[in-house]
Amino acid sequence: MSISTQFSVPQRMERLPLTSYQKKIFYIIATAWFFDSMDLGMLTFVLGSIKTDLGLTTVQAGLLSSFSFLGMFFGAASAGMAADKFGRKIVFQTSMILWGAASIACAFTQNVQQLALARFFLGLGMGMEFPIGQSLISEFIPAKNRGRYIALLEGFWPIGFIAAGILSYFLLPIGGWRLVFLCEGIPAIFVLIIRRMVPESPRWLADTNQDEKADMVMTAFEKNVEKAYGKELPPPIKDDNLVIGKHEKKFSFLQLWAPGYKKKTIMVWLLWFFALLGYYGLTTWLSAFLQEAGYSVTKSVYYTIMISLAGIPGFFSAAYFIEKNGRKPTLIVVLIGCAVFAYLYGTASSLQTLIGFGLGMQFFLFAMWSSLYAYTPELYPTRARATGTGFASSVGRFGSLLGPYIVAVVLPTLGNSGVFALGAACFIAAALSVAILGEETKGRVLEEISA
After folding, report:
1. Which CATH number covers residue 343?
2. What b/e string do you get for 246-259 counting C-beta neighbours within 10 Å, with b at 16 or more?
3. Where in the cell is it found (predicted)?
């Protein structure tokens, strides 16, 4: 009897050692996080210049920044359902085409309406990528390594954010914000090519009863792992928790609210909404706040880059602690840290305290991202992982959409300190949702968690 008839795809997948082959797939998927972070982070650095160049009011600038998140709202929700129906790979590739084309289009827009439309389609492509990338990493990496690698995946976010700042720092004085958008869109061609190396998820194929294709993809995957490993693979794991139920009824949106999933869905939607409302409400305006405080464009970009450097040890710390202490406690701690330092940043009265509190804030903000992305895809079964993750991300994007606009509206009344206190309250609300409704998923295989 062959291995394909004796053992399920998860039984075969979970026994695989982690090799350079899985790491290569990880880094290819991670390019999405890096370049998407550059695109979103870029607005932090060029919003002040766009506002001045196009003669926008504070409210209009807030609305413009919200258009990317409006696109992400629709992209995350639609991509999740599409990926669970048509497969991870095709949707992942489509998102790249949308993102690259829209990023380049931003450079050639002639007015704020055209720029807003381009930012919407850019957000649509980015919104599609996030739930698919999370699902693929969750389904390719064994349980004992999964949390750390999803957290490391999110680590490409601060690196991309810092790269956006460096690009802005050197290009803004030369060609303005249009040159910045053009240069960051060019790598899309390279990324589109290398993504063809990522296989379809054999877990998804098996779960959708495409057994022959699942076996073919899984066999090729095993051969590549064995080649990288340099010796014979260990035998598959005999564990009933790793057997996929055959011919199950397809998972619909309404089932996110069925017994067994309702509590998870409420928790993760609250978590994403408040976490992203706080994050984007604050970070989108960081450089613009500094410009309004009297710092030049170049100085404001420089200081924003400086405090963002703390995000790198932030995500490394999260990657370590989510495996050591668990997803739930780590997420609660980093959200509380976000709240404390966001509030303190809003009270900073000198450049020294601004940078000091800013470093603490960015450390915890990027640790939050790592923990958030490690936790979410583990809460739903394979047949609904992209759907559940996609709708959670979509709800978060709704918070992202509201954040910059709310800040633009309340800033004249509350001032910087009031805005950052409001952001701190959002992070506390997110922490409470996890503390009260969350469950721990550390070290558990996907099929066991979602059983």
Report:
1. 1.20.1250.20
2. eeeeebeeebbeee
3. Cell membrane
